[in-house]
Write a structure and sequence with these properties.
- The complex is a heterodimer of chains A (388) and B (272).
- By secondary structure, chain A is mainly alpha-helical.
- Chain A is built from 13 helices and 2 strands.
- Chain A folds into 2 domains: 31 residues; 264 residues, MetI-like (MetI-like fold, Orthogonal Bundle).
- Helices cover 38% and strands 21% of the residues of chain B.
- Classes of the chains: A mainly alpha (388), B alpha/beta (272).
- Chains A and B meet through strand 1, helix 6 and helix 12 of A and strand 7 and helix 7 of B.
- Chain A: Pfam families: BPD_transp_1.
Chain lengths: 388, 272
């Protein structure tokens, strides 16, 4: 009964709209739009507020101590009687783990996304993607605990062999590919002489293989000989952070690869392109803006992560020696804020308190800039793709 | 934590205020060091339970404890250091006669990995390691390995004590020093790192790490008690004049069996 009544009402409403109903509809539309607008602007206002309040507490630091010490000195002794607030080593530490984790997570993540979207059959993808996304659900303190209690001693005891095997596993396949392609390229010029090129190709392949094997072995052995003195170092944190950034990168890039759609892929195949050519020349360029967004998101995740670096980076505020030494312990901006906040709030108003806000502002500005840059690149990419 | 502490204080103050008019003499107020705080709080709970006396414990730091006592705002000042001359002078000028009582002792063990065959260092050597002058174990008679120096974060009382007793307040600790957030974290890092050196409260030492002799003295309850172990300090409760009544009873809790048990359970060393 009631259902038919409702149906009739709806029908009549659709055809004959009374003035009163129209007013109600207009009012509802206005209220709905207003509500959505309020919610959307609320988020923007929250961001502005965070910026404002962090900046408000950060500026007194620069008034008290100036810019030079903060950005150029590596002496971080905030608790001493005349405190020293040189954050250069800490900024460097943050940059170091961010770059390190990006170097691991970006190739791995993008490759995994391509594999998921264009290589693996649908049934496998259905299971693989949720499993990768599970990585994002693990609390960061659990990652930190793993890094400190399990991974750090492992790196100390078997650091050399671990790096050797990692090198072999990663560089090995690339070397095989390089040998094949190189031998192919050098012999294909010969053109007609089929039998001659075959012999030449075999000889070249063997020669290259020996060189490649020698190189693999030499680098592997030098890695194997390295003694890792401390397991709580930049490498440990970079690896753990890259695993934390992976689900973001894989998930977002896979979505953007999927969004490229069937038409482009089928068009490419119809022109006679192989699957590899389709992926490299058609799908990747079309999805590049989405992949870039994924990479930026992943990097932001690594830069902003606190718990893991606080637990497992060693927190020593110095620039590693030499500067690229990932086996040295470092200190990051986020860990410093977390670690020093406990006492700093008792001395509100001092440089020691405001310096932490200065660090927070630095992090905010950095993420703001990288967001802007990625936005610009996405816009430019769209223009290129649409042929303008 | 902070909020909990504040809530606790609030409740304590409120209950104190409620009972104060009726039994003004049956209440004690303690203020001062955060290091002595745990002892004072377990004593307070015990005292209230057994003698029906309300005890309020605030933890505002040794300096503030002294100030409270001088101003007559507390009965007992908890202090993890002796009274400074200026404080004694200020007390005298207000007619307060500060008398310090050692309530317990606190020792810090310098620990290394069990596989490290270094078993004794001098205070000088430890200072040089933490200042970054000595960077390899073979410089202090150990294996050839780069020393992994581990310290506590800047707001740790243990760090504070270690700096003032060993490194020297004026000397910065090497920038290479790793920082861990708790006694437990330092212990776990040292236990898993062959070349590490760290320092932890005496109560935290177990078989997973090796504690070093400092200036030839092995850290233990006995050596801290007889004063021969150098990285140790007495913890004080300071009163105005010789204590009487409930104040005396409270301070002398550390001579009773129950009091001794509470102190050793908290990881401190008994004086008696």
């Amino acid at each position: 009964m009631s259902q038919t009544n409702l149906g009739e009402n709806r029908m009549s409403g659709a055809f004959v709209v009374s003035a009163r109903k129209r007013t109600i509809q207009k009012g509802m539309k206005f209220a709905g739009e207003g509500l959505l607008f309020a919610i959307a602007s609320f988020v923007a206002v929250v961001v502005l507020f965070i910026f404002f309040f962090v900046a408000r507490d950060a500026i007194p630091f620069f008034q008290l101590r100036g810019f030079a010490e903060f950005f150029t000195s590596t002496s971080w002794y905030p608790a001493d009687a005349p405190g020293e607030f040189g954050a250069l080593a800490i900024i460097y530490g943050s940059a170091m783990v961010t770059v390190g984790s990006a170097l691991i997570a970006v190739p791995l993540g993008v490759a995994a996304a391509i594999c998921l979207s264009d290589v693996l059959p649908f049934s496998v993808r259905q299971y693989a993607k949720p499993v990768i996304e599970m990585l994002a659900a693990i609390p960061s303190v659990a990652y930190g605990f793993f890094a400190l209690v399990i991974f750090a001693p492992l790196l100390q005891n078997f650091g050399g062999p671990i790096m050797m095997w990692a090198w072999w596993l990663i560089a090995g396949p690339f070397m095989i590919l390089a040998v094949i392609v190189l031998a192919d390229l050098l012999t294909s010029k010969d053109g007609e002489q089929q039998s001659g090129t075959n012999v030449k190709r075999v000889v070249l392949s063997i020669l290259f293989s020996i060189i490649a094997l020698g190189f693999l072995y030499w680098v592997g052995m030098s890695l194997n000989a390295i003694q890792v003195m401390t397991g709580t170092n930049a490498l440990n944190v970079s690896i753990i952070l890259s695993f934390m950034a992976l689900p973001t990168i894989v998930s977002v890039s896979e979505d953007s690869l999927q969004a490229v759609g069937r038409e482009l892929r089928e068009g490419s195949y119809a022109l006679g392109a192989t699957r590899a050519e389709t992926i490299v020349k058609t799908v990747l360029p079309a999805a590049s803006s989405g992949i870039l967004a994924a990479v930026i998101l992943g990097i932001m995740r690594a830069l902003g992560e606190t718990m893991v670096v606080w637990m497992a980076s060693g927190n020593s505020s110095h620039i590693p020696d030499p500067w690229y030494n990932y086996l040295d312990s470092i200190r990051t901006l986020t860990a410093t804020i977390a670690g020093d906040m406990g006492e700093a709030d008792q001395v509100t108003g001092s440089a020691r308190y405001h310096v932490l806000f200065a660090m927070g502002l630095l992090l905010l500005i950095f993420s703001f800039i990288s967001n802007l840059v990625s936005e610009r690149i996405v816009v430019r990419q769209r223009k290129i793709l649409s042929g303008q | 934590m902070k909020i909990l502490k504040k809530l606790f204080l609030l409740v304590a103050v409120l209950s104190f205020a409620a009972t104060a008019p009726a039994q003004a003499k049956d209440s004690l107020v303690l203020d001062g060091s955060t290091t002595v705080g745990p002892i004072a709080k377990s004593f307070a709970a015990y005292f209230t339970k057994n003698y029906g006396v309300q005890v309020t414990v605030s933890e505002s730091g040794s300096g503030n404890g002294a100030k409270s006592l001088i101003n007559g705002a507390c009965d007992i000042a908890n202090m993890s250091r002796g009274m400074k001359d200026a404080e004694v002078a200020a007390a005298k000028s207000k007619g307060v006669d500060p008398v310090a009582h050692v309530v317990a002792l606190d020792g810090i063990a310098v620990v290394v990995h069990p596989s490290n065959f270094v078993s004794a260092l001098t205070t000088e050597q430890i200072r040089d390691i933490y200042r970054g002058k000595v960077t390899n174990w073979n410089q202090v008679g150990g294996p050839s390995a780069k020393i992994v120096v581990i310290q506590r974060e800047s707001n740790s009382g243990t760090q504070d004590l270690f700096r003032s007793l060993v490194v020297g307040k004026k000397n910065p600790i090497t920038k290479r020093a790793e920082t861990q957030a708790s006694n437990g974290a330092v212990k776990s890092r040292v236990a898993t790192t062959p070349a590490a050196i760290g320092f932890i409260g005496l109560g935290f030492v177990d078989d997973s790490v090796k504690s070093l002799s400092v200036d030839g003295v092995k850290p233990s309850v006995e050596t801290v008690k007889d004063g021969s172990y150098p990285v140790a300090r007495p913890l004080f409760m300071v009163t105005d004049g010789q204590p009487t009544g409930n104040v005396k009873k409270f301070i002398e809790l550390n001579r009773t069996e129950d009091g001794k048990q509470m102190i050793s359970e908290l990881g401190y060393v008994n004086k008696y």
